[in-house]
């Protein structure tokens, strides 16, 4: 009985709850929700997209929400090797604004194919994958906004540096442009905020590369994650976040990022990544999102917003690495305002 009642309420909300929505080209709410002319109607917006790689063809999972010919936001998740589930909260904000958005699990992530060949886990290949996804979804410079958070922010920067002519707008969320600077910030600023004996024990485990020691995860959970990854007690972390952690592909994550939470482990392929000197090549309208309690330095992210040619900075004072959850109102208000401002300027 309860499930039936809930279904009726949700249906009523979808049909009538956003009755004031009208997009810039006079599309109504019914147009936003109408799948009847789409080739993904059969599975409610889900499309498995074939991707050509040097190791053969694989498929990646995508799911489109809504219709808006002028605003289509492709979401690049973090990790590497996590999932689109980190962005479930976007459902609470984007539909009411008429913003079309696309969930997407990168190759190797839970809902997509998960080949084991490590040669596939390279930045250039991921950039090529995003470009193939863009083409398959019909995204172009008139509608394509690329949102990337954490590792997804790295990937978004790399994509923009190669294909910015295909973009309408770029969003770099909770990601610095230099991993060496990230490591320095983690060890010199965040680590010392812990009790001294705790940080010393963590560093000792890292120095000895004893990452399988259960004490390592225990200390991070208690003293790091709930202060700088998502600022809530672990018992209150959203189910979608716990689900994406459960679905993490460690083979991709460890190969590219390593085991450490205070930098990039020696030997990991992302070690030394730095695009700071190249940011001034990005001319497309760009929003950089930083947070007061992030694992990333908000001061450096503000600097990034000034290095790109057409940048804007959004600061989430109460947020951490997943500021879409712990400073949600500021995060979504700023993100939505940016998208609509860019749309208004390019439409007029």
UniProtKB/TrEMBL annotation:
Q: Which residues form the AB hydrolase-1 domain?
A: 73-327
Designated name of the protein = Proline iminopeptidase-family hydrolase
Q: Which Pfam families match?
A: Abhydrolase_1
Range of residues in the leader sequence = 1-23
Report a single Gene Ontology molecular function: hydrolase activity
User: Gene3D superfamilies attached here?
Assistant: alpha/beta hydrolase (3.40.50.1820)
What the record says about family reads: Belongs to the peptidase S33 family.
Q: Which UniProt keywords apply?
A: Hydrolase, Signal
Q: Which InterPro entries match?
A: AB_hydrolase_1 (IPR000073), AB_hydrolase_fold (IPR029058), AB_hydrolase_sf (IPR050266), Peptidase_S33 (IPR002410), Pro_imino_pep (IPR005945)
């Amino acid at each position: 009985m309860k499930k039936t009642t809930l279904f009726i309420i949700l249906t009523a909300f979808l049909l009538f709850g956003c009755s004031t929505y009208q997009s810039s080209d006079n599309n109504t709410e019914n147009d936003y929700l109408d799948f009847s002319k789409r080739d993904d109607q059969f599975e409610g917006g889900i499309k498995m997209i074939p991707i050509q790689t040097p190791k053969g063809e694989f498929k990646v999972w995508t799911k489109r929400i809504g219709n808006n010919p002028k605003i289509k936001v492709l979401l690049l998740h973090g990790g590497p090797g996590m999932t689109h589930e980190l962005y479930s909260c976007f459902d609470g904000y984007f539909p009411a604004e008429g913003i079309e958005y696309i969930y997407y699990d990168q190759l190797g992530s839970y809902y997509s194919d998960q080949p084991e060949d490590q040669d596939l886990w390279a930045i250039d290949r991921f950039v090529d994958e995003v470009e193939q996804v863009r083409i398959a979804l019909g995204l172009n410079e008139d509608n394509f906004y690329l949102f990337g958070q954490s590792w997804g922010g790295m990937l978004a920067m790399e994509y923009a540096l190669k294909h910015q002519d295909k973009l309408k707008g770029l969003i770099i969320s909770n990601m610095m442009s230099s991993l060496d600077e990230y490591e320095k910030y983690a060890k010199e600023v965040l680590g010392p905020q812990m009790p001294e004996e705790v940080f010393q024990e963590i560093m000792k485990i890292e120095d000895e590369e004893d990452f399988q020691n259960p004490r390592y995860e225990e200390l991070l959970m208690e003293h790091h994650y709930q202060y700088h990854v998502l600022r809530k007690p672990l018992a209150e972390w959203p189910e979608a976040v716990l689900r994406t952690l459960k679905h993490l592909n460690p083979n991709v994550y460890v190969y590219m990022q390593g085991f450490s939470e205070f930098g990039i482990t020696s030997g990991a392929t992302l070690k030394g990544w730095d695009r700071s000197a190249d940011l001034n090549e990005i001319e497309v309208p760009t929003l950089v999102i930083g947070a007061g309690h992030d694992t990333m330095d908000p001061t450096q992210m503000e600097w990034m917003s000034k290095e790109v040619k057409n940048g804007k900075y959004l600061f989430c004072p109460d947020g951490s690495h997943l500021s879409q959850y712990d400073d949600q109102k500021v995060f979504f208000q700023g993100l939505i305002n940016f998208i609509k401002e860019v749309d208004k300027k390019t439409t007029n």
